[in-house]
Amino acid sequence: MVNKSSLAKKLASYSAVAAAVLAIDRTADAQIVYTPVKPAFVGSDTTYNLDLNNDGIVDFKIIQTHTSFRNGGTNYSFSAHGGEFVGAIAMSSNALIGKPFYYGSAINANNVGSYGWAKGQSFEYEKWQLRGNDDSSFYSGGPWRFNSDTSYVPLKLVDNGNTYYGWVRLYIGGSFIVTGYAYNSVPDSGIYAGQECNIQFPIPTISQNGAILTTTAATKIQWYYNDKAISGDTTQSISVSQNGIYTVTTGDTTICHGTSLPFNYINCSTLQLPVIVSSGNLICNYKVVKLSMDSVPQYYSIQWLKNDTILPGEANKTFYTSIGGSYSIVWTEQGGCTDTSTSVKITLDTNLIYPSIIQSNDTLFFVPYQGNFPANTKLQWYTLDSTINGANAAYYVPNDTGIYKLTETDSIGCSETTDFGYQVCKNIHPFITSTTKAVCNYNWMSLYADSVPSDYRIEWFFNNVLNDNGQKFQVWKPGSIYAVIYETGGCSDTTNTINLPLDTTHYHPVITQHDDTLFSNYSTGNTWLSEITNLTNDSAQFFLPPQSGYYYIIYTDSLGCTTSSTEYYYSYTKTGIKNSNSIESISIYPNPAKDQLLITSNNLQIMQVQIENELGQIVLDKVFDNPLKKQTLDINTLPAGMYFYRITTKDEETITGKFVKE
């Protein structure tokens, strides 16, 4: 709070005009201090410093600005937002009570508030703004003082803990004009807007009956027409013939008097026909259309109608609607004259609600709402920034990843635009792999789609029916299987189709032994295995175990199905050898062999070599005319595979073994 001098000191500093007004009458319950501003202060892009109690300290500021304003670096500021503002600032602990008041409105503790008020009519670009000492601002959508340019801003002045109420008379047009201000010097006592002296007569009112205007004023009556006194018109009722603004005053002195609100008289036969301006006659998909009056004369009230029915609460010059219908406006002049505008028909079009775009593989498709594609609808595809010439179909194949838009325009003229993030398809060409070519004995098997990223979606189809999704598919019965792979952007690709028959024709393999050799009942598809040693390249029908132990076979048929034999125990012996040292004396090289075998011995003369295939058939029988310790055997005519040899020496010893032909 700013410490000011005492009230007595303030009163001593009043202007001579204020002192003269004070001298008129001093009642116990009111001490009205009025200060006329002569000449009137006209502000344009400037500031008026208002000292309500004339003590030399600024209590309020009134500002007009086209740009942002800051009060000496403090937090009092206005933001013009590119337009023009007229605003008031309360300094120190004072307050702007509320929006501008009518003449004669009570200003007291019961109506303290903080509001902003925007000037309407021909000065809509001008904004009225209030700002408190806490830098809070307030706005409102109404006009500056109800279509009247002159009004009274209510004020609250705080001094040494006392509160005083007052007003400033303000005109806002192309500029702002201050013509006077007043306050009640009795703490916590109210004042009427426009009250200039201690005697406050009731505010006279004016009513109309045809061409007769009547006032409630009873004494010292004076009628005015367009702010000029009408000579001789001092009675309660007068007859008028000219359209215009009439007022009446009443009072007991030339200084203290009461003035009515302006009354706009108009001959009903000359009432102006209201005209509605519309932002459009078509409402697309429940969007909003603005209906408005170009201008509303002062002292006119308005009422909007839809299909000739009153719209409750719609009494502003601007009306927004999203519903089709026939709209009109009735305005009523202050004297009771009314007229109705020509109706404006608004059509509601809901044909284009929620169009959408989907991607299928490399193509974008337009999907109309609920599948409804109205006749004569036009389509246009766009990239993010420009029109795609010639792209007017219900589908489009982009070349690049990006945002694409589609505008749908119906025959009435409404349009809707939607967009979609398109991704170029990667075309990964997935392929289904399987370890078998059939379903083996109704056993479960797993299928996989190769080279599919983990974030892609996979749908598996069994006999053309969607059956499962995921990275793998398990099946136990025969059928046709394929998968559809979906990329994150909507692209898809289809795998190969595999047909899995049911394989129930194979049986468990059986192991038998002949001499020192084990035999399988299957000629092919054998894999010999042992729990005691690793076996390599042992897939023939015959197998010569290297040592005693348990042996078994895994059999794989032509479709990839497998089954196993029972374990067979083999006891290792050196059968068919007369001299136990003979086997160590024979060497066969190389093994595996390709074209020839070199057979050598340290002490035995080789006379005959017999070669048998895996079926026990003799495929080569060579008798050497000259038995030697080193012989060469040509095997290039033999097919690749496992073979068994039987060597006979000159001393009739027999030595057996096996080798591999490459």
Describe this protein's structure.
By secondary structure, this protein is mostly beta strands. It has 7 domains: 7-192, no CATH class; 206-265, no CATH class; 269-349, Immunoglobulins (Immunoglobulin-like, Sandwich); 356-422, Immunoglobulin-like; 431-503, Immunoglobulins (Immunoglobulin-like); 511-570, no CATH class; 583-661, Sandwich (Immunoglobulin-like). 2% of the residues lie in helices and 46% in strands. Strands 2, 3, 6, 9, 10 and 11 form a 6-stranded mixed β-sheet that branches. The radius of gyration is 55 Å and the shape is rod-shaped. The termini are far apart. Residues 1-29, 69-83, 113-149 and 574-583 have low confidence and may be disordered.
